[in-house]
Amino acid sequence: MNLELAAPAYALEASTVESSLEASPLEASTVDQQAPTPSRPPLDRHPRLRLSWLVLQAIPSPGIAVGDRGAHGSLSWQVTPLLYSWALDPRLSRFRTFVVEPLVRQAGSIELFVSPEWVGRGLDWTNLGFRAGARAYFPITERGDGLSWSLGASLAWFDDAQSPSLDVGIYTLFGGLGLLASATPWFADGWAQLSLRVRYF
Amino acid sequence: MRHLLRRLLLPGLLLLATTACSELKLFGAFFSGSIDQLGRDVRPVANKPTQPRRPEARLAALWVGHATALLQLDDKFVLTDPVFTDTVGTLSKRFVEPGIDVENLPRLDAVLVSHLHFDHLSLGSLDLLEGKYSQLVLPQGGLVYVPSSPVEPVELATWESVELDGLRITATPVEHVGFRYGGDASWMTQSFTGYVIEYAGLTVYFGGDTARSDWMFHATGRRFPRIDLALLPIAPIHPRDFMCHTHVDPAEALDLFRDLGARYMMAVHYDTFFNSLDEFGEAPRTLRALLPARGLTENDVAILEPGGQRVFIGRP
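^ inputs. structure came back:
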């Protein structure tokens, strides 16, 4: 298969482009400029941090925590300081910070995450904590857009207690909706947790 | 100043509330329609072609459904915006089966993706096509949403071309949007395109999704003055004040056909998925009704059923 990027058609036909029509900036610039570099790399645009993204990240993922004192509700949030995607085309940057396109995460990636959490029966600061760790995502259908799963390991801090934690999750709707089950054996108020993960970018 | 603010505040709030209500109402209509369709059966296609290669044709096109069309240019085969899955975006289900089964497709010389919306870039469909295509052509910036590709896709910016064994594909301007998820709209601003496919003196235009433009189709027609066939979307139509920014209706599609100066047109992008408030059958019915006033017939403008195939130029 002979594959080569050819010179753009307008380079050959620039003389035919004059028109009585009012040309848009795009048309005018493509006529006047040099041909795009044939060997140019693919366009590599990174996500932008926007206020709407920040607002959406404030939406918590609700869950249930089961511990020594029974079952409680829980809320968690998630932040991704760094993600590496092994599924992205090697011509593109495979790293993301904070804002991550759903497909970049769900198609195959590993992320460092920090997850503030609230577990308990009331607004008691002792029920606030967080976990930090790493989680890998693997696609199941539609390269992760349809269905994907994850495996994570972290350390959790709640009040004075610390505990290692393992989690496994399954996601649909481009990773926007999922179920995450975690085991945190030394955390008395929530050694087992199941949360409905809600995430948008 | 305070008086002015007070005077502006109430109308402003009312405007905001009205806008939010209408957007929510629209979203609700789309969502409930999608859910309703999920419970319905997919209409089968009778007599699906099993041998799409037409030995008597120089130029033939088979409408698979939505924006998916199988093009034959002499011995070359090109597939546009392939969607063979039952749903797009997980929730939007088909009305009707694809017009051909994947296993009956010929070896494809190129697969073209016009933009990144779920009904045009279907990763599940690309998985179904694995091993059947040699090259995947994407709009500029589209590569990020084609992870784990078995072939090395090529991105084309507007007016850029790629040559594949004599098959020349050029990206052409269209009026649409480049995002996939909505939240990426602020940086995915260029990833949408039309294409012109040239081979052995034959020229085919594929419009993907587009709204009308005062200059883009004239410009494409001038650069490619002998377009034999233009594949143009004719829907979604409604709600028009919402769709008009990104989609042509049947009348506007005929305007594009005229602006391109193409010899034949084939209508695509209708009656396949729930993606609008159109009645089923409304877009092709409207298009048919418009033809006589434009001095056109269905010989000029092909309006096919899924699985329908038309030979536009035969062998001498």
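Chain B has a mean pLDDT of 92. The CA atoms of residues 87 and 93 of chain B lie 4 Å apart.
thumbs up if we can close this ticket
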